[in-house]
Automatic annotation (TrEMBL):
Top-level lineage group: Eukaryota
Sample GO molecular function, one term: ATP binding
Sorted UniProt keywords: ATP-binding, Membrane, Nucleotide-binding, Signal, Transmembrane, Transmembrane helix
UniProt name for this protein: Receptor kinase
Signal sequence annotation: 1-22
Parts of the chain that traverse the membrane: 252-273
Organism in which the protein naturally occurs: Solanum tuberosum (Potato)
Length: 280
């Protein structure tokens, strides 16, 4: 009786292990929650499952906001609010430099690369001209730039360069020794550091190719060369690491089952031996 109970327990344990292995297969959730945002789905994904989407989210338990990465390898921003195909973001690094009136704020340049299946548009981003100022022939150079930027505001509070901007105009011809930078704005009045802000609205649009893939139950992905890939079997390992994990899992279960079978065989032989000796 004891042997029978032991064998039953062992078989039950093996069944639990096999089921647990099946549950460990990596799958992409239809939706998930992160911070105060619920029912998030493609193109969002958790940073622990980057293959399930194109915009990764992390720090879901952090306060006050979770973080989001719009493009792989890009900057991480705080996600403030979401609506349909847009999200309000905050750049914490820019926020710090603006609060400190630090000229390193003008080393930033906001742009998002468009891919074959997803395009971005940043709404409250404006163009500024960052022009090098030198002591050599400075008066003549400044005079030429001032003539070029007639009607523009100028900020000359930074060492080595000046900032020219006109909030009612877009980008113009780029003069010599000037570069174009794009920064978010939140006001049209006051000092330049009052005009600038750390928050911006990012909108995105999926391509028809990606929409068709997603509507067909697939996942729009990119490979290492940034080429489009429609992944339609979420349970299939999507990387060499996943394949190694699944292979290791299969080997482990096989080892457990094989060992368990041997134990069961030994237990059965022992039980038969006791019965045989009892008869004798």
């Amino acid at each position: 009786m004891a042997i029978t109970s032991f064998v039953s327990f062992l078989l039950s344990l093996l069944l639990i292990l096999v089921q647990a292995k099946g549950r460990n297969v990596s799958t992409c959730p239809k939706s998930f929650s992160c911070g105060d945002f619920t029912d998030l789905s493609f193109p969002f994904s958790l940073s622990t499952q980057p293959d399930c989407g194109m915009m990764s989210m992390s720090g879901c338990d952090a306060k006050p906001y979770p973080r989001i990465q719009l493009v792989p390898g890009g900057e991480w921003y705080y996600a403030l609010d979401m609506h349909n195909s847009s999200v309000w973001l905050r750049d914490p690094k820019l926020q710090t430099t603006l609060m400190q009136h630090n000229c390193q704020a003008f080393n930033k340049n906001f742009s998002l690369p468009n891919s074959h299946f997803m395009s971005f548009h940043m709404v409250n981003i404006h163009s500024f001209f960052k022009c090098i100022s030198t002591s050599y022939n400075a008066r003549n150079i400044t005079h030429k730039k001032n003539n070029h930027f007639v009607g523009y505001n100028i900020y000359n509070g930074c060492e080595g360069f000046n900032i020219y901007y006109n909030l009612s105009k877009g980008a113009d011809n780029l003069p010599t020794n000037c570069s174009l930078i794009r920064l978010p704005i939140h006001s049209s009045h006051g000092d330049l550091f009052d005009v600038l802000g750390p928050e911006f609205l990012a909108e995105w649009k999926l391509s028809d190719e990606c929409n068709e893939c997603h509507d067909g139950g697939g996942q729009c992905q990119t490979d290492k060369t940034n080429k489009f890939s429609c992944h339609k079997d979420a349970k299939t390992p999507t990387s060499t690491t996943d394949q190694r994990k699944e292979t290791t899992g299969r080997n482990m279960v096989g080892l457990i089952v094989g060992t368990g079978s041997k134990i069961c065989l030994i237990a059965a032989m022992y039980s038969y031996y006791r019965i045989f000796m009892h008869i004798i």
